């Protein structure tokens, strides 16, 4: 499955890089490699059912949890040590932190990273906060792994993510474990 | 030429290449005090008219200005190199932390936090990652000293701001209804003293006769002032958050928060950031009233809901005239 995911996206990145300068092409290629080996596709590219079982839906490459896939309330897990569940697409997860969805990493301006600057991307990683300033980035995103990357590597990842096809897909907001009432007294 | 550039880089004189010095290990070494517990006379005390909510902490603030502030841009004062600003936080009558902002070069600032010792005699530099469990602020709720990354989240990355020391915050035309407003004590500086002491230059001529003031009725003035201090440090168009388009600075808050477009509030099908006449459908109020890590606003620096602010903003939203199309 890894190969199935890795090859097309690497090729796509390379193909898109053709119009860029040699230095930019190299940067994008390096970014494609990091995205591949870091396993970004595992959650950010939805799985679909193929003849041999679940396979990445490359038409939605790195676009996160599909907007049209409305998840019902997550099943309650009462028997420890079972602690969390995931969707068949591998893009929605429920656990003690609430319900989280894989983000859209494509360069779509409204729903992905298209409006992000490189500095904001770096800030998001350094701070481990949503949009670089908001709530903490939620499990199962292994943000701590990304934080171990060098700034140059992160810039390459950002360059690659900006080079891939934009997919318009508004990922739902995460859901807290229990509704928090507004104090009204 | 190349040799000169190389020499500049080696000497750290090239713009942006200068490395900020490490902050001192002890608060007593930062220049705040003249003697133990005695603040040096050169450090000016001040109190912003709209304080940031930090779980009910009692705060004290001082600034050292080695030269005049460049006040030509009223919304973006440029502080002289060598500026130091301190903010002390106390809970239950005990000092817990003091934060330092120190401008060490034209584009470099040192951020540091100091945790007070048990004897309350000095405070020790906190590691870069912060101190998550510094004091109890309410039963079961602990105050954490933010990391330096968190400090920069609010104070800015390149264009660093001293958030409580701005033209609006130091305006002598203070909002009597400001939530958790602190009285001006003798010796505290406002715009008047800064101008008189020639510590602020380049401002508009009528700064003191027409000092900054949030427009609107008293409830609006207070609500927007609160949003300025607690929300607009991040939610502002000049530092846009991708995909959000929200600007909670006083002059822009109503326009951007009332913009059409859904913004989720649990259990409400028809919600937006601010829904006039309908506090229950207003995500802004929901976020203020939540301390769930996913939903809470501000997302850091507080573990307790500011009930007085929630009550005021709820009444304010309820009294806002409903939008015709809503």
Overview of the structural elements:
- The complex is a heterodimer of chains A (about 180) and B (about 325).
- By secondary structure, chain A is α+β, with helices and mostly antiparallel strands.
- Chain A has 6 helices and 5 strands.
- Helices cover about 35% and strands about 10% of the residues of chain A.
- In chain A, the strands form 2 sheets. A 3-stranded antiparallel sheet of chain A has the order 3-4-5, with no helix packed on it. Chain A has a two-stranded antiparallel sheet with strand order 1-2.
- The model of chain A is unreliable at about 1-10 (pLDDT under 50).
- In chain B, a hairpin with a 6-residue loop joins strand 8 (about 110-115) and strand 9 (about 125).
- Classes of the chains: A alpha+beta (about 180), B alpha+beta (about 325).
- The interface of A and B includes residues 97 and 115 of A.
Question: Any chance you could write out the topology, listing elements then pairs?
Answer:
The complex is a heterodimer of chains A (185) and B (326).
Chain A: H1 2-16, H2 22-37, H3 40-44, E1 47-50, E2 53-56, E3 85-86, E4 92-95, E5 98-101, H4 118-127, H5 143-147, H6 151-161
Antiparallel strand pairs in A: 1-2, 3-4, 4-5
Helix pairs in contact in A: 1-2, 2-6
Chain B: H1 2-11, E1 33-35, E2 38-39, E3 44-45, E4 58-64, E5 69-70, E6 84-91, E7 94-105, E8 108-116, E9 123-125, E10 131-138, E11 141-145, H2 148-155, H3 191-196, E12 200-201, H4 218-230, H5 253-257, H6 283-288, H7 307-319
Helix pairs in contact in B: 4-7
Task: Let me know the average pLDDT of chain A.
Answer: 88
Characterize the biggest β-sheet of chain A.
3 strands, antiparallel
Order of the strands making up the biggest sheet of chain B: 3-4-6-7-8-9
The SSE order of chain A reads HHHEEEEEHHH
- As a percent range, the share of strand residues of chain A is 5-15%
What is the topology, as strand order, of the major beta sheet of chain A? 3-4-5
Indicate the percent of residues in helices of chain A.
Answer: 25-40%
Total strands of chain A = 5
